Structure formats: structure tokens, C-alpha cells
Amino acid sequence: MAAARPPLIRALNEQLLLGHIRRLGQCSRADLARLSGLSKPTVSLALAAVERAGLIRVAGQQTGRPGRSAQLYEVHPEAGFVLGLDVGAQYLRAGVADLAGTIRARGAARLHASSVRGRIGELIRLADELCAEAGVDRAAVTQTVLGSPGVYDRNRDAMALTGRPPGWERPEIMTWLREEFGAALIIENDINAAALAEQADGHGREVGSFAFVSVGTGIGMGLVVGGQLVRGAHGVAGEIAYVPMTGGHGTEPESGASSSAAGWRGALEGASSAAAVVRSARRAGLRGQVSARSVFQAAARGDDRATGVVADEAQLVARMLCTVISVIDPELIVLGGGIGQAPGFADAVIAELGPMAPVLPDVRVSAIGTEAVVDGCLAAAAELAWARLTVDLPTAASAASAAG
């Protein structure tokens, strides 16, 4: 094996120090030398190169310590910008952040368009509004990540298994999106994105393996094992909507409608989604404007019919989680989504899960809220943006030429 050449060594040093600055925030040359094990002259040389590239800047002077004050370095906020998008069933959400991690703008808009082209138009308008608020031209965004139901099929260059919105799986959709958001656009499964947000800012920070399970308009799971998001060989890891599990009042669709016609992505989603809770409630005798939220509110007030519906839902979700535990054995399960985060639902699930599961992991309710998908997309976009920017460093380019 040939020894590493100087340009490659310098590039690796620059990437190492940049990683420390990203993780720690403001730090001095001495801090970086201690953390990296590199000599102070080597650190100074690498910092100078990264600063010339516009990726870091001097943040000020270190105070409160004896001796000569040292310069502190931090990520340059203007090094780049990332855009996170969330295409939901009823709402579009988005956020713009700089590469120092500061959210410059975020917002949401209710979907009105019925056509896919119309939905993309509404998404573009929301992105443009937020970019303008953040003072960034959309064309200057370094990386965009869009969270969507389903998985990206590389062979077809199209989305698959989306369930909704209708037409979202057509190949031309990716062409339209890239025309607007750039060739580097990445599509991320929405629940995987939420799991990344949970890992970065939620309960997932505390563990190496956890399952983020969202139960709401649909049902899905993002799985992190060994600190890494698990996607599977075909990208469908976590697509628990397709688990062939039935039970509860909400199993059968109304008026004999098929699951595909109803927009469900699988048997479990057809039986345990918000729409299933509404069907259960109507069959149990609840009348008027029934929604999943109103059913849970009625159960909290002591309505026996609503309480039975919630109990059925908790049992069905517990059975699914038992399957996850038996196969994956995660340290933690985080419940998200409108149903997953409903007051008292986690306790009902735990009560059902305890007697049937081989072990009972910690089960918590996500505290991230409706911005989880956007925040996860921003986190993923930041990692991709930094990877692109460090590859474009002059030293990295020299190292690649030398290796070639």
C-alpha cells in the first residue's frame, strides 16, 4: 500500500479540524491541536486554508484565561445555505438554514392544488417566500432535501410507495423538481427525516439505536442503529405500513373501498391511521364532525365509545411495536405523529405492549412537533452540503489530482 501523499494528508487534516469546529462551535488553535493530536503549526496551516475557502472565520478572542488571548474560530454562517422541504398530505412546510446551523426562516402553507404540478408550484412559492425572508436567492442554496412519503427508486429515478398525493410516483416529477431546486436535490422519506431530527435534537441523542414511529395521517418508522439511519437494500426499511397486520374496528374501509383507492400504503396503515380511527368512531356510534383528535378528546372526557376506539388503536400499534422489538431490539421507541403524540396514547400502548413483548424498551413521546420532517431535512442537507464544500477545497482537489 502506497503512503499517503502530502496533499491528501493536508486535505484530511482540514476536514478533521472543520469537523471539530462544526461539532464544538467556537474553539482556539490550542483546543483543536489538543482534540486532533496535530501539532500547532499543522493546525495553523490547515485553519488558514479553510478560512481562505470561506468555511470558517475568526469569532473573537478567548478571555478569562491567563496568558496571551487566543483567537477563536467558528463556522462561517455565509459558507452556504440549505433548504428543507416537507410535502405532507394537507400542508407544505419548509425551512432555510445557514451552515452554522441557524434557522434563517421557516413556514408552512396549506395545500390547495389537486394536481401534482400545482402542488409543486405551491412548494416553489413557499420556498421563494422563505428564501426571500432569509435574504438568500433560491438558486444560491447549496443543498435542498425534500421529505416525502414513500421511497426514492434509483432504477426508475422516481418515487415509489407514496400512497399520496396521486401522481407523485411519475418519473417526470423528479425532472420538474430538479429544474426548480437544482440537480443536487435529494428526496428523503419523511419519517426517516423525522428520525434524523429526533437523533439531532430529541430523545435519540441519548442512545445508539432507536425507532421513531409516526402514527397519524399515515404510519411509518425511521430506524437508527449504531448511530446510522437504516435504509435497507431497496430503501424500504421502516415501511411498516405494509406489515400484514389487521385488527380493531378501523380495519375495513368504508363502503367497500380498496386500500389503494383510499390512498393507504399497506394493510397496517389502512387499519391504524387517523382515517381508521375516524371509521372506528363512527362504527362505535360517535356522530357529528368526527376527527382523530376529537375521538381522543372524547376518550379523555370519559366517553366509553371513544375510549374503546383508542384502546383498539393502542393494541394494534402495540402489536406492531412488538414485531419491531422482536426483530430489532432498539434501546428506545419514540412515538410521533398526531396519534402517536396524543395525550395518554403512549401510556395505553405501553400497557398493551408490556405483556406481549420479549423486552420493554424505553417508550417516549417525541417533543419535536410538526417541524420534525423539515428539521431532519435541514440536518441531512447540512451534511451533504459540507461534504460537497470540503471536496471543493483547493487542497482536496489537489489531493484528488495526486491520487489520480
Account of the protein in words:
With 404 residues, this protein is α/β, with parallel strands linked by helices. It is built from 15 helices and 15 strands. The chain has helices at residues 6-24, 29-36, 40-52, 116-134, 172-181, 190-201, 259-262, 267-272, 274-283, 292-300, 304-328, 337-340, 345-356, 372-391, 394-403, and strands at 27-28, 56-61, 71-75, 81-87, 91-98, 103-110, 143-148, 151-153, 158-160, 186-189, 210-215, 219-225, 228-229, 332-336, 362-365. The strands form four sheets. It has a five-stranded mixed sheet. A five-stranded mixed sheet has the order 13-12-11-14-15. It has a three-stranded antiparallel sheet with strand order 1-3-2. Strand 8 and strand 9 form a beta hairpin. The longest helix has 25 residues, at 304-328. The radius of gyration is 24 Å and the shape is globular.
How would you sum up this structure in a few lines?
The chain has 404 residues and is an alpha/beta fold.
Number of strands: 15
- The ordered string of helix (H) and strand (E) elements is HEHHEEEEEHEEEHEHEEEHHHHHEHHEHH
The main pleated sheet reads as: 5 strands, mixed
- Mean pLDDT comes to 87
- With strands numbered from the N-terminus, the spatial order across the biggest sheet is 6-5-4-7-10
Class inferred from helices and paired strands: alpha/beta
Number of helical segments with 4 or more residues? 15
Helix content: 40-55%
Our estimate of the beta-strand percent is: 15-25%
Poorly predicted tracts of residues: 248-262
Shape category: globular
Kindly report how far apart the N and C termini lie.
15 Å
Structural Rg: 24 Å
